[in-house]
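Lab meeting, action items carried over

1. Structure of the two-component assembly. Owner: GW. Status: complete.
Input record:
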Amino acid sequence: MRFSWSLTAGAALAAVVVLCGAPGAQAQYSDNKIKLGILDDFSGPYCTDNCMSPVNAVQIAVDEFGGKINGVQIEVIHGDHQDKPDVGVALAERWYDTEQVDAILDVVYSGVALAVQEVARQRNKAVLYSMAGSDALTGKACAPFSAQWTYDTYQLPNLGEAVPMLGKTWFILSADYAYGKALVAGVTRSVTNAGGTIVGTVFHPFGTADMSSFMLQAQASKAQVIALGDAGPDMTNAIKAANEFGLIASGVKVVPLSMDLSAIAGAGGLQATQGMIMALPWYRDANPPKSEAWAAEFEKRQGSMAPYLMAGLYSAVRTYLLAAQATGTDDPKKIFEWMRGHVVDDAFTGHGVLRADGRMVHDVYLVQVKKPSESTGPRDLANLLAVIPGDKAFRPLDQGGCPTVAAAGK
Amino acid sequence: MALEIGELSASAAKTRGIDWLGLAVGIAILVVAPFLIYPVFLIKLLCMALFACAFNLMIGGGGLLSFGHAAFFGGGAYIAAETAKNFGFPFEFALLAGVASATFLGFLFGVIAIRRQGLFFAMITLALAQAVYFLALRLPFTHSEDGIQAVPRGWLFGVVDLKDNFAMYYVTAAIFLAGYLLVARVWKSPFGQVLRAIKDNQPRMISLGYPVDRYKLMNFVLSAALSGLAGSLKAMGLGLATLTDVDFTTSIAVVLMVLLGGMGTLLGPVVGAIISVSMDDYLAGIGIPVPVVIGVIFVVIILVFRRGIVGEVVHYWRKWQARKPATRA
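Predicted assembly:
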């Protein structure tokens, strides 16, 4: 009885396979869908612009494929890790193990990202980072199917040839946590390499509203340049304090390392930020006309200016979906092989390359914020000073300490 | 009177021994649960429940409200994670190291804070816990907000491979049960009675000749050790120890769990932990701001069930019991 059942089932299956014929690749997508999970802070201090910008950025990429790849539905879900690594891990494990999520995306806050990296590694699953900036993700903690797309804590403070343009003596004001310390190490390296000197460093606690005592220390150091190694509201507060104490008016240059052009409005506009120099992973003219068209689409959906973090997220998802389309599978091994073998050419960059350690290498744009009188509109905010080629902007492959890369090199 | 039974669960008041039926039901639930619910989630839940039980021992038993218990929980987690990952300690010794460090911290906190009561006690524990938080932020081995990741679970007694989620779950469940029974035992012991008497009327206990401070310190250290065990177990189970574990929000969360479930009842903290942790995890996926939902639920529960959920059940159960003889007569 059982035998005849299985025989019938087998025959039916064979018939189905024969009937389906050529697009047999369909059977390669596990659970017959491609499911992406955005794991971010949707309620706390790391959520910006009503928290939904990552969802919009990912949706633009999905919509470009019409929501389907080779007839298979693309599904996007999102979850709030509340900046708690244990919540992030529990959610990531549930997504991978029981909810058929193929790739986890973005993961703001490196504490959670590093935890999710371990979850992905244990299960050989894919994870694509844009907002996660810890350079350990492509260094000591690298994983085979993880990619860090937009920036990292090595690249942001890597100002290169801008250092002599800015000045010889530097003061660093930074936030007292791992991210801030990584940026301080980076600035120190890039300034001393260019022949400048660090005359002082001060750390403030995370979430400082009153920056006056720190700004006074910076002022007393008589440094020509003040680098800000904090982020978010802390950085905005520091910029405002620098203005209130007349530092910017007196000719001191302020370099906010984590600044994006989209944050200028919140930091006091061009009046407060004019002359500031930053190394941006992306801006509207990064790869015209694609980059401009994408920025316009994002702004239409989100209602605010497109940040580089979201452009990077879009690009990561788009590349992943292209790979899934081309290889006809959601097997992370095949997808990452494809992604590493193809140049990224989209709204984010014209010639990005995904390296073996998971670092996506692309050009970085050194820009200076315009004077209010030079700006022609709300989107015309900065002048391009120089393009730093990707291989100079990012940490060289052999210096990260990624174990799989080191093993391959031997 | 010192032995006011209103502070005890109904079963504990009736029989001084172990409630065998309740225990059997509890064990059955623990055994079946991982087949119905995701085991890693249950591991986290049991760790938080054990933490809440440890906290309850202090506030329900001794009447001491501490706002610094995250220091023991997180301290234990960091030490267990560090010893397991970088010193190569096996599972059991990593747990022991975590417990030992929390016990030491508890003793230190206790010696400083125990002479004060009420708000002053709470503020001293909060201040000391913030000092521990600062250490966790600054010490190199904790890696600041990145935390200690990829902690290997290792093997239990070198025999059972804990990489398997089910194995890890059952080990966690066994440790949780042992911790719970220990709290229950302390609760019903003469030591526990003295603590409740101190809570009710400290001057009288002093006049009766009890070394009140020593009893309270002992209780505090015991609670800290159990919190450290919960933290170490969480670090091993989830494979990470981070700033969240020592953050004051964790201290607040455990207070809420105990209030939610029912302060001074044995089962209350467990129920509170189940509700609180489930909300944290399951609301994470629905796309509404989690803190708002949790806040509203907490306010409603605390307004409607002022004795906590288990406390309220016990209260009405007892009311009903008291009315029965009256209707018969």
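2. GW to write a short summary for the group page. Key points so far: Residues 13-27 of chain A have pLDDT under 50 and may be disordered. The domain at 30-152+283-365 of chain A is CATH 3.40.50.2300 (Rossmann fold).
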